[in-house]
Design brief:
The chain is an alpha+beta fold and 62 residues long. The chain has 4 helices and 3 strands, in the order αααβββα. A 3-stranded antiparallel beta sheet has the order 2-1-3. It binds zinc ion.
Length: 62
Amino acid sequence: MKKIEKAKLCKVAKTGLTKKNISSYAALVKDASFVCKSCGRTAASKKQLCSPKAIDDLIAEK
Ligand SMILES: [Zn+2]
């Protein structure tokens, strides 16, 4: 099985891998600093989103 630590969480969620790896997934989103502009998912690492944006930047732009 593909390690979700190295995958885009946007894709992981669509394939249903989240359910099988919910504790790993939780660890990856716990300290989320990035949000996906395309689908709204969050992650601690921007490498794990298809269209990442820094949450702090977005709040500052408000
Ligand atoms: Zn996405």
